[in-house]
Amino acid sequence: MIRKDSIRGQTHGAIDAQTFRRKFRLLIFNAWNVPAIFGLSFILYVQILSVPEMIAVMTNPLEPLFVITWIAFSLWYFTRWVRPVVAYLENPTEESVKAALNCIRLFPMHFWVLFFAYLIMAPISVIWAAELYADFVPKPVDWFRISMVALIVSIIVGLPIFFMILDLFGRALTGVPLARAHVTVRTKVFLIGALVPLLIDTMLVQYYWSRTGFFTTETFVVWLFLELLAIGGSLIFVRSFGQSLAPLETIVGG
User: What is the pLDDT at residue 33?
Assistant: First the structure.
């Protein structure tokens, strides 16, 4: 049961409906716009495509249309998805807060499914556009390298924006009691501890590869080993962190 006095107290909360809607749309726009800018710039920097090839890709309709379509779809989809939160901010009632909490609880799954779908399709659209307009002939290694770029983009762009959206949700529902956290501190620690080393190693491999042209099975095995080591270390740290918080959880629960 959600206390009505908590709901009334939220009427003048940390953020109003109009501000929330504007900031949320801006974050969603950046989540689908910045990856295109950063990803294409990085592809050019590590020389997967040459400057003339990139110009051909960007001055023909396929790639710009792909990006614009995804931005428009994501704005339409998530603007509709977040309506319960906006409705709660406009009229905080027991029913509206339940709908808002349910919306926020399911948001991470919807965000990452669409975001990863976008990043999976993005390399295909770039390679296809390069084939059509720049006579680019992709090799298997080109597909692998551009997929690594998508991985870099997902971490360096997607993760910070995702956390900013969660913070925005937190401001919108300030004062509303939660039965449990939607994204726990342990999950955040694991994501940062595992994905930041993955980001650094992948960027270093891409840079080294572009400057030396050297990449063998041994390089891939070492890269994969470092990523698994980072994930394993993060899991150990999260477990230790959880044990350290156990006494505090007991006090709070009591």
Answer: 93
- Most confident range (mean pLDDT) of 72-81, 89-98, 117-126, 163-172 is 72-81
pLDDT tens-digit map of 214-230? 777 787 788 888 778 87
Q: Which two tokens stand for residue 236?
A: 């150990």
User: Structural domain boundaries of the chain?
Assistant: 4-177, 184-254
Give 240's pLDDT tier (boundaries 50, 70, 90): confident
Contact 177, 252 (CB under 8 A): no
